[in-house]
Design goal:
With 289 residues, the protein is of the alpha/beta class. It has seven helices and nine strands, in the order αβαβαββαβααββββα. Strand 2, helix 3 and strand 3 form a beta-alpha-beta unit. The chain is elongated and about 110 Å long.
């Protein structure tokens, strides 16, 4: 198992909301991967690569971390994984119909080389689906924690669009935001990833993430996607998180109470020793008279 830092997602080690945030992107990618040869660049432990394999003609996961590739192969033995750099992919040119790269580009020193590599390994009409956090929103949300030490370069909307258009003739940018909803429906009528109609507006400056679909050929803008998690009841997860925080606070209160008791005991012992010392000093003074 690779070391868990929170940057390379391991499904069972993160909260449901964070997992859903990532899985929603792969549900979108799965709809574009049908019948295609797909590369999942920066695949980590392979949970998303396995999702893409559900609809792709073929899929390969690529990651620079040998421990991640080893874990991916252990988890998803029927899926192909390859160790290698996203900035210099050990793959032949014009091989893939679709390259997927979610939350990867901001981690790379030479992210422009990565984009050139995507152009190289894509077929002439192939597509790149790439996501990254919105620098404007991310900086605000991490105001107290400070910059993410694992990020080499973050993008705002204008820069992300400009850099992608430097390598691709057609770029369509989507906005990803985390929203809550309430669903009332008969059981079994909706699966874990549901495509629905409707608008997907919003201010790019306020978006949590950007997702771009890039190609040298014209692309059809994907429909809005409403991702309904199959396992995450938002209220339940929130209540569980509150319970966890409450238990942590109770533990801290108990430890603090114990420390206060230890402190009082030490103060009492100090006062007893001080009183004993004063008595002995008085006894010694009386003997010298």
């Amino acid at each position: 198992m690779p070391e868990f830092t929170g940057e390379r997602l391991v499904p069972e080690l993160v909260e449901a909301d964070l997992l859903n945030e990532h899985m929603a992107r792969y549900v979108l990618a799965r709809s574009l991967a049908a019948g295609a040869d797909v590369l999942d660049a920066g695949c980590g432990v392979g949970y998303g690569t396995a999702e893409l394999a559900r609809s792709a003609a073929s899929v390969m996961g690529l990651d620079c971390a040998p421990e991640a590739i080893e874990e991916a192969r252990r988890r998803y033995g029927s899926v192909a994984f390859l160790e290698g750099s996203c900035e210099q992919m050990p793959l032949e040119a014009a091989r893939f119909d679709l390259v997927v790269a979610f939350e990867v580009i901001e981690h790379l020193d030479d992210w422009r080389a990565f984009l050139r590599e995507c152009v190289r390994v894509l077929k002439p009409a192939g597509r790149l689906l790439v996501s990254t956090p919105n620098k404007t929103y991310y900086a605000e949300s991490r105001r107290q924690a400070g910059p993410n030490p694992f990020h080499r370069h973050e993008f705002d909307y204008a820069e992300f669009q400009a850099e992608l258009r430097a390598g691709f003739a057609h770029v369509t940018l989507l906005l990803q935001n985390h929203a809550e909803g309430v669903l009332i429906a008969p059981p079994g009528r909706l699966d874990s990833g549901t495509l629905g109609g409707g608008g997907a507006g919003g201010n790019p400056e306020h978006a949590h993430f950007f997702i771009a679909l890039c190609s040298q050929a014209e692309v059809v803008t994907p429909e809005a996607l409403f991702y309904l998690p199959g396992t995450a009841n938002v209220l339940r997860e929130r209540e569980r998180h509150i319970d966890l925080l409450a238990s942590e606070l109770a533990l801290k209160d108990r430890v603090l109470s114990e420390r206060h008791a230890e402190h009082r005991e030490l103060v009492d012992r100090f006062r007893a020793l001080q009183s004993e010392l004063e008595e002995r000093n008085q006894w010694a003074a009386d003997r010298q008279r």
